[in-house]
Amino acid sequence: MGTVQSAPWWWAAAGLAAIGAVHSVTPLSPAAFAAGLAYLLASSVLLSLGLRRGEAARFGPANAVTATRSVLVAIVTAMVVSSFSTPVPAPILVSTVAVALALDAVDGYVARRTATVTELGARFDMEVDAFLLLVLCAYDLRYVGVWVLAIGLMRYAFVGAAWLLPWMGASLPPRYWRKVVTAICGIALTMVATGSLPGWLDSALAGIALVLLIESFGRDVVWLVRARQRVAVEEPARVRPHS
Q1: C-alpha distances out from residue 27 to 33, 41, 76, 83, 136, Å
Q2: Backbone angles phi, psi at 175, to 5 degrees
Q3: Does domain 2-239 have CATH number 1.10.3470?
C-alpha cells in the first residue's frame, strides 16, 4: 500500500525537474516556479487521498499516463504564469500542450487494455483536462479577451454549484461527447495560443469552444434536474404505508 500512496510524489518530483529543464531553455519567473509547484503539490495530495480512500492495489499504468500529462500541465502552468511578466516561446508552450492533448487519448486506452478502469482514474483524467483548459484560457485572454476565461471556469462553477445544491453532485452517466468537447476545446485554445491567427479567427475558435461546452454542461444539468424530479416522485411511493 505504501507504494501506491507515494507514487504520485514521484511525478511531482519529475514535474519540478521538468520545469527546471524548461527554465534552462527559456528563463521562468519565480512566480512561475511557485505556480507549477503549487499545482504539482495539490494534484499529488488529492490523488494520494483518492488512492487511499479507494484502497487501490497499485498506482496502475493508466494513472501513470495521466500523471505524465499532469507533469506537462505543470510545465504549461509555469510558462503561462511567467508569460505575464516575460515573453515565453510560443512553439515550446504549444508543443507541450499538444503532447498533453495527444496523451489524453492514451490513458483511457491503456486503462481498458489493462483492465484498470477506475472511477478515480476517470476523475483524475477529467481534473487534469479541466485545469489545462483553465491555464490555456489564462494565456489566450491576451488574444481573445477576458470572456475566454468562461471556458476554463465552467467546470469549477459546476463543482461550486454542487456544493450549494447537493443534488447536482450526483453521479452522471458516462457520455463520450464530453471527451469530444474537451478535446475540441483544447485544440481550439491551442490554436489561439500560437498567436499566428487573425483576431477574428481566434474569437471564432474560442466562441465555438464556449458554445460546445455550454451545450455539454447544459445537457448534464438537464439530466440532473430530471433525475431529481424522478426521485421526488418515487420517494413518496416508497414511504407510503400499505393499506
Answers
A1: 10, 22, 14, 10, 20
A2: -150, 115
A3: no
